[in-house]
Amino acid sequence: MNTADKDHHHAFYSGLQDTLGQLRESGLYKVERVLASRQGAEVVGSDGRHLINMCANNYLGLSGNEHTVQAAIQATEKYGYGLSSVRFICGTQTVHKELEAALAQFLGMEDTILYAAAFDANGGVFEPLFDAQDAIISDALNHASIIDGIRLCKAARYRYAHNDMADLEVQLQTASSEGRRHKIIVTDGVFSMDGTIAQLDKICALADRYGALVMIDECHASGFMGATGRGTHEHHNVMGRIDIITGTLGKALGGAMGGFVSSRREVIDMLRQKSRPYLFSNTLAPSIAGASLEVLKTITASTELRDRLHANTTHFRREILQLGFTIKPGTHPVVPVMLFEATVAQQFAARLYELGVLVSGFFFPVVPMGQARVRVQLSAAHSTEQINKALAAFAQAGRELRIIN
Ligand SMILES: *Cc1c(COP(=O)(O)O)cnc(C)c1O
Q: Does residue 59 line the site of ligand 1, with CB under 6 A?
């Protein structure tokens, strides 16, 4: 390298060091907590500390569950460790087809296509289906993967204020008056920072009025929202009126990884032909496909886990209010405990860790300025005793930091 090249080489690395230093100074540097145990209601940190875990997306408690683990082992025995192939060359096994059929049936859709992650599902769903003549009308707080997926597609973009049905209607009118061919409304079924449930009844009514399609991302809903856990569309009684559902196998449905799109047959068929994260990425590991099938069997046979999750959620929401904390009202197992100041949220989460409770603090820019919080997530795996122990720790830390009296 000549001197100028060396300088540029050096400038690249020192630039990264500067940016990382700024992240640390502003308290925005993310440190990963290291666990030494399975995921579950109680986990062991790499420091040996036992913690009640209240920040996993393990809503049904299936992630570290022995039945899930055994199903994954059995699928590995039968189908092997991996396929070393994309789906369309030699990466499709009977277990993948069975899982796609089972997911479609569970969600009340015609067909399903699997991806390596929901991030890929959202990244690959728009571009094959919509082009510059079309309109994508998206909630302002939709997940990052939806935003990226829309960016990869040539359709015109319209954004409506979060959960604001009047603004959604304005955007639908604008898209119509601008002569867009197809219109699709896109929303998270449940927004994970607040536990807000999208108003799918109203969204479907608007979609009908303006001739639009509806897509929902069910990552924080599949498996436990609605009377039998089908999702937000069941919760709002609009099953059969949703055109596209995306979701993850990495949260309630077992917690490993993997994503999917469920829709009409011709939509799924087109995605199999054209969706880039599907075509150019390896097939889902058979252990995950097999265990996910077992998870679907379990939650279809009985609503016990879903019912326990909701009972735990109701109990925690009631008691945390009794203690004098402020929470975002709602019914979802995501319970934002509001602390408002970023430093308070950090101190509170750190003190809870010392008291044996794992939660994470969220502050700007992840949530709006002055809206810092710890986000509690309930699980069907929590015992009442564990929840009460966690509540006692919240009470102690809350009094110490003068958040409550
Ligand atoms: C977690 C999440 C995703 C990403 O899911 P992965 O399967 O982990 O990639 C996408 N959308 C929403 C709304 C999520 O919460």
A: no
